[in-house]
Q: What sequence folds into this?
């Protein structure tokens, strides 16, 4: 199964510029009727409270809040003392999209959606808690179909069709060297970043020099290669963290996927560069409100396509190929999530299946 991802071009901002594209060309006569099925499911981890499983129309799994309607699927992954409440509030970021406008002006719709999300982010009042947010809206206008994805934080969005998994989200975390490089270049007094919370929170681990100092991720030359090699071989002593602190996914660069955190006043803070909430951290790091990605993907009229949005409890347990194969063989979100065993965090997923009639 092939994997690809949303293309981000430099445009002089931290956010970058997202390329909108056609998933693949339409082959044969265009079919104008499509059937859409949406579903969502979640499972809380024992480390979080389990007594709340529903908030109004939305499902709850620990600190995850998730749901679906006839045209949208969405997930918010909360963290901090008020994480579930922050996730519940983040769900309200779901944008309104006019199909006729999308048919005429894709860039205009992107700007409109981003403005809606930024307005919601600006009124979040959670100082020390927050939530990711990912939403995928399925839009139809005549024979044309689009999937409009909104991405804040590190929850994941995927489009799956034929033998391809297309990643429609960008993890807004400090591991992402391209995002961090933009941050250093464009933000006054950027903060330094350390790996995970080692030696800057509850963890105590000797670094590559044998000291108990924070293990820094970047230096003036970019990624600190000595520390990158050190954390990437920790699994030899601690087999349970092979590949990273949580994920089963393997990354090309050894510094990735180690849950890096910004270092504020000697303490390691959140792993996400951009979230709904975390107002105190955002004010200190000065990450701007427009750190939002909106990706508009046109779907060929004759293809069956599956859309997935999911919290990192799932993306830490499933490779992209696992996600694609499992989604393609599942009829709904509950069946999809039931195949993930021994999860290390809350899990939530929402799915749509669009197929020509």
A:
């Amino acid at each position: 199964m092939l994997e690809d991802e949303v293309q981000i071009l430099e445009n002089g901002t931290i956010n970058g510029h997202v390329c909108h594209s056609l998933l693949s060309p339409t082959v044969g006569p265009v079919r104008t009727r499509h059937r859409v099925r949406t579903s969502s499911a979640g499972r809380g981890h024992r480390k979080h409270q389990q007594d709340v499983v529903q908030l109004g129309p939305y499902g709850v799994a620990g600190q995850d809040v998730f749901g679906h309607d006839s045209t949208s699927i969405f997930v918010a992954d909360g963290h901090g003392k008020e994480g579930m409440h922050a996730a519940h509030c983040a769900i309200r970021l779901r944008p309104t999209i006019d199909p006729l406008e999308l048919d005429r002006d894709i860039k205009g719709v992107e700007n409109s959606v981003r403005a809606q999300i930024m307005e919601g982010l600006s009124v979040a009042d959670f100082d020390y808690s927050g939530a990711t947010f990912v939403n995928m809206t399925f839009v139809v206008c005549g024979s044309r179909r689009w999937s409009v994805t909104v991405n804040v934080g590190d929850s994941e969005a995927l489009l799956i069709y034929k033998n391809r998994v297309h990643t429609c989200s960008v993890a807004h975390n400090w591991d992402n060297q391209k995002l961090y490089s933009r941050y250093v270049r464009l933000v006054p007094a950027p903060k330094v970043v350390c790996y995970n919370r080692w030696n800057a929170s509850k963890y105590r681990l000797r670094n590559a020099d044998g000291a108990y100092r924070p293990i820094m991720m970047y230096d003036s030359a970019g990624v600190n290669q000595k520390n990158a090699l050190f954390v990437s071989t920790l699994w030899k002593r601690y087999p349970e963290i092979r590949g990273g602190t949580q994920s089963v996914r393997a990354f090309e660069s050894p510094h990735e996927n180690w849950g890096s955190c910004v270092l504020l006043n000697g303490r390691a803070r959140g792993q996400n560069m951009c979230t709904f909430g975390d107002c105190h951290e955002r004010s200190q790091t000065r990450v701007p409100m427009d750190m939002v990605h909106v990706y508009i993907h046109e779907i060929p009229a004759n293809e069956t396509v599956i859309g997935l949005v999911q919290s990192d409890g799932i993306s830490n347990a499933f490779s992209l190929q696992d996600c694609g194969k499992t989604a393609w063989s599942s009829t709904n979100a509950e069946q999809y999530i039931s195949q993930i065993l021994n999860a290390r965090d809350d899990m939530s997923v929402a799915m749509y299946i669009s197929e020509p009639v």
Notes: Residues 177-271 form one domain.
